[in-house]
Write a structure and sequence with these properties.
The complex is a heterodimer of chains A (114) and B (112). Chain A has no helices and 10 strands. By secondary structure, chain A is mostly beta strands. The radius of gyration of chain A is 13 Å and the shape is globular. In chain B, the strands form 2 sheets. In chain B, strands 2, 4, 5, 9, 10 and 11 form a 6-stranded mixed sheet that branches. Chain B has a 5-stranded antiparallel sheet with strand order 1-3-8-7-6, with no helix packed on it. In chain B, β6 and β7 form a beta hairpin. The chains are: A mainly beta (114), B mainly beta (112).
Amino acid sequence: GAGVSQSPSNKVTEKGKDVELRCDPISGHTALYWYRQSLGQGLEFLIYFQGNSAPDKSGLPSDRFSAERTGGSVSTLTIQRTQQEDSAVYLCASSPQGGLSVLTFGAGSRLTVL
Amino acid sequence: GQQLNQSPQSMFIQEGEDVSMNCTSSSIFNTWLWYKQDPGEGPVLLIALYKAGELTSNGRLTAQFGITRKDSFLNISASIPSDVGIYFCAGQLAGANSKLTFGKGITLSVRP
């Protein structure tokens, strides 16, 4: 597609449930990032995929968070046993390569944990 | 890890005024970027800076890459109501696989 597509745009779940958030990057972009934006906060880095390299998972806040990227394209961010503090907007971005390339962001998935 | 500092958290200006935003870091970055986020949307790139001392304009926006490579500023001239939003600075270290580090952003309000 023309831009980065994220789904769902809004997700409301109950505490303790698992959720999956999907990101479809721009075709041909090899780098893919997940960020978390809590209310009134900046962009918190979660995980970074670059081509076939091992992902940089250094930003994942706990082992309840995981992400995978299949076939170098679509990525899924999974949050297990959701907690209320997981409520945030989860933003995905992609770029043609790592290094000096700028990021194009999706509109985000807003997660609300009740 | 690297941190980018943006302050204040919010700015309120009158339509037509100029505004300047600063971003500082304790680390040296090779690339500085400025993004704007409208409500309900993802951040959109405004200006990218790749060399120390570089001054780049995009319409009413002007940004500079500081000589020390530890800071950058963004100026908006003759503000208009659609300038409202959150402005993020971002820095990137050298290296093919370096990730972007973002500041916490500044929320700009423009009074008509």
